[in-house]
UniProtKB/TrEMBL annotation, chain A:
It comes from Shewanella subflava. It comes from the Bacteria. Keywords: Electron transport, FAD, Flavoprotein, Transport. This is FAD-binding protein. Residues 3-180 form the Electron transfer flavoprotein alpha/beta-subunit N-terminal domain. Gene3D superfamilies: HUPs, TPP-binding domain. The keyword Electron transport applies. Belongs to the ETF alpha-subunit/FixB family. CDD domains: ETF_alpha.
UniProtKB/TrEMBL annotation, chain B:
Residues 23-211 form the Electron transfer flavoprotein alpha/beta-subunit N-terminal domain. PROSITE patterns: ETF_BETA. This is Electron transfer flavoprotein subunit beta. It comes from the Bacteria.
Amino acid sequence: MTILVLAEHDNAHLKADTAKVVAAASAIGGDIHVLVAGHQCAEAANAAKALTGVTKVLVADSALYANHLAENLGKLIISLSTDYSHILSAASSVGKDTLPRVAALLDVAQISEVISVESADTFIRPIYAGNALATVQSLDDKKVMTVRSSAFDAVASTGSAELVAIDTAIDARTQFVSQTLTESARPELGNAGIIVSGGRGMGSGENFAILEQLADKLGAAVGASRAAVDAGFVPNDLQVGQTGKIVAPDLYIAVGISGAIQHLAGMKDSKVIVAINKDPEAPIFQVADYGLEADLFDAIPALNNLL
Amino acid sequence: MKVLVPVKRVVDANVKVRVKADHSNVDTANLKMALNPFCEIAVEEAVRLKEAGIATEVVVVSVGSKAVQEQLRTAMALGADRAIHIETDEELVPLSIAKLLLAVQQKEQAQLVVFGKQSIDGDNNQTGQMLAALADMPQATFASEVKVEGDNIVVTREIDGGLQTLTMPLPAVVTVDLRLNEPRYASLPNIMKAKRKPLDVHSVTDLAVTLKAHQTVLKVTPPAERQAGIMVSSVEELVEKLKIEAKVI
Ligand SMILES: Cc1cc2nc3c(=O)[nH]c(=O)nc-3n(C[C@H](O)[C@H](O)[C@H](O)COP(=O)(O)OP(=O)(O)OC[C@H]3O[C@@H](n4cnc5c(N)ncnc54)[C@H](O)[C@@H]3O)c2cc1C
């Protein structure tokens, strides 16, 4: 059994997601290879080489792969697929974009957002916004799956795998035009130990400043509910929830968030949940370890003063 | 330009489902059903393309039991011109649905296929990408802006780190995210009109598609319940609890 893991990276940096997907691959068992497809991605490939349990890193370095386009990235994976029993990626925007194309071309089903590996062919995945967990046994000869990285602990970096260059160059009709990435010195949502999230109750984008101050005091990432993103308070990539980022930090502080099913789906596996809300009936209090019924415009500045 | 919009009937987004006592599945009996919210956004976008004079016809298609005709009628009340129902009582994986949609696409030759990015029941986020692969079309997933420019489509996508814009030649597949548009409400006259719009029914065998079994759902269980928490009375108490009891700050 050999498993292929699609690396998550931005050419210069390997994202922590990759080490978590490798952890899922280790739970399946067998040889683990990592594919780093990108442009001038030697740095990312070197980081992948060190991931514990990885024996080979395939490096497809070409301008054609610079932007991780599903159309040709999918075909590249297909060209490598013969030797693999399992093909895994993070349930990231690249993984979700690409792996279903791979599965379809291999004529196998995809198992999305795996949170637990029961055996080499049986996996657990959440359905209905995490209100139910399905244990699914695959009957396909190859298993293609995306992994919810928040459910796995990253492997260490103690290894030294072999690097193998892949020369297959596949073009795409899809053309990259531009990209605007949110710049932030704070930790990424997916890796943060602490997340401070704001909802519609924040009232405006400017008001998020007090949450950012709190986040900086705690070394935390900033998140948001859909309502806060829809209202334009913060950028889309901060959305936590069923259809945004799924997170499980040690501490999640929900501020002015009511706790809709779709928001809970993205954060209810956090170790400790704090809710600050002025409505004692808000459903967020039902999942909170510590609830504080208060006006956030009093509570957050007070917190900032105390910390 | 013809636009094809595959849609799904799901449990309403405001309903919290429960798992059946025998752990065989979720219990969906007598729950309020609706058009999947993402599919609603896809229909709205297609209808806007028609209103802008870019699309000539909007065709909606759904795979499922007889009941999905209710959602096909809803989609037509929102402005779709006609509907195709592929009738089956089996619960199919996204790949099988994509194969059935491929048969429809080959017949319809739509220039643009617009999907919701995921359905809120299975949360799979696969079907659009799979159809694109089977039909060998380029794709733009998680769209928050769609512009047709001649024979090309320019799409802004919500990605993990922010926003990305791609362009690709038609025919293409687009899957839509939440912020693409705000779907309209169907007006009563449009709901009445939708009842008379054409709705064709096909069986899986009609479409000459062979499907196979890909997976077995061994069980469906409820997630672990969180331990009940406590209310604190002040910011000071909160900080103390987080430091001393939970030891997280
Ligand atoms: C298909 C679909 C997908 C979705 N996906 C997501 C998703 O991924 N993520 C997500 O978050 N949502 C998602 N939603 C939306 C979700 O249903 C809710 O509408 C949303 O989470 C509400 O955001 P909110 O809690 O910020 O706003 P509200 O529900 O409006 O809550 C605001 C809260 O702030 C409190 N408040 C107001 N002012 C103050 C104050 N001064 N001090 C203290 N508290 C105050 C109020 O008491 C209230 O509880 C989705 C919905 C659908 C239909």
